[in-house]
Amino acid sequence: MIKITEQPFDPWHELSSFQLAMRRDGEFGACANFIGTMRDMNEGDAVNAMVLEHYPSMTEKHLDKIVQEAKGKWNLLETLVIHRVGELLPNDPIVLVAVWSAHRKDAFEASRFIMEDLKSKAPFWKRESLSATDQQAEKNRWVGKNTSGY
Amino acid sequence: MTQTKAEKAMTIKVLYFASLRELLGCNEELISEDGLNTVGDVWQRVSDGKNVTQQVLYSINQEYAQAESLVKAGDEVAFFPPVTGG
C-alpha cells in the first residue's frame, strides 16, 4: 500500500493496524521498517517548519514502480509506504517504509532499497522555514540535495 | 481559456516544481509542439532568456526522461530540481 497524506500520521499506529489488516498471521517472520522524522536543525540552522511539495501523479507512479521492483528482487509478503506532504513541524513523521517477509534478509534489504530509491528519485521537495536569529530575519530556503544513505 | 480539440492536440503541457517553479514564476503552461522534437528542445524554449544555473531534471508523462527523449503533442513534460523527499 502506498499513501501520500497531508494529514499528520502516527507510524506506529499505521504499522500495527496495517499488520493486523493484512491477515498474514503465521506467514511473516520479519518486518523491517524505517521512519523518517523532521528535525529542528539542518546545516547548522534552526528550522521551525517545512513545506513538502510533490508532483502528485508522478510520485504515486514512481513509488509504485519502486515497490514493484523490490518485489521482483526479494521475496516479500507485504509493503507499506506512507509519505507526508504539505506543512510539517519538527518531530512530525515524514516517511514510513515497512516490509514484511518470511526471513529478515528480504525485509532488511528491500526496505533499504525502497527507502534509498525514494530519497534519490521520488519527486518530493522540501522548503525549510529558518528561525530568525540576531543576524537575520526568518527566511525560507529549498533543500538543495539529499545526502546519500549508503 | 477554453481550448478547442484541435488546439489541444498540438500542444505539450509543461509543469514546473519547487525552486524552479518559483524561479520561472510559473506552475504550468501549454506550449505549441511546433519544432520541438526532444524534451531538451522543450527546455531550451521555456528557459530561453531565463537565468537558470541549477541542475534540472526532466520527466515525460510522469516518468524520468533524458534531454534526448522524444516528445509529442499531448505529452505532459515536467522540469524540476533534484528531489529532497523522505
Q: Any overview of this molecule?
A:
- The complex is a heterodimer of chains A (150) and B (86).
- Chain A has 150 residues and is of the alpha+beta class.
- Chain A is built from three helices and nine strands, in the order βαβββαβββαββ.
- In chain A, helix 2 (56-73) packs antiparallel against helix 3.
- The two termini of chain A are 25 Å apart.
- In chain B, 24% of the residues lie in helices and 27% in strands.
- Chain B is built from three helices and five strands.
- Chain B has helices at 5-9, 18-24, 39-47; strands at residues 11-16, 28-32, 57-60, 63-65, 76-80.
- In chain B, strands 2-1-5-3-4 form a five-stranded mixed sheet.
- At the A-B interface, strand 4, helix 2, helix 3 and strand 8 of A face loops of B.
- What level of helicity do the residues of chain B show? 10-25%
β-sheet strand percentage of chain B: 25-35%
Q: End-to-end distance of chain A, in Å?
A: 25 Å
**Quaternary organization:** heterodimer
The overall strand count of chain A is: 9
Largest sheet of chain B: 5 strands, mixed
Question: Segments of chain B where pLDDT lies below 50 for 5+ residues?
Answer: none
List the secondary-structure elements of chain A in sequence, H or E. EHEEEHEEEHEE
Q: What is the spatial order of strands in the main beta sheet of chain B? A: 2-1-5-3-4
Instruction: Please state the CA-atom Rg of chain B, rounded to the nearest Å.
Output: 13 Å
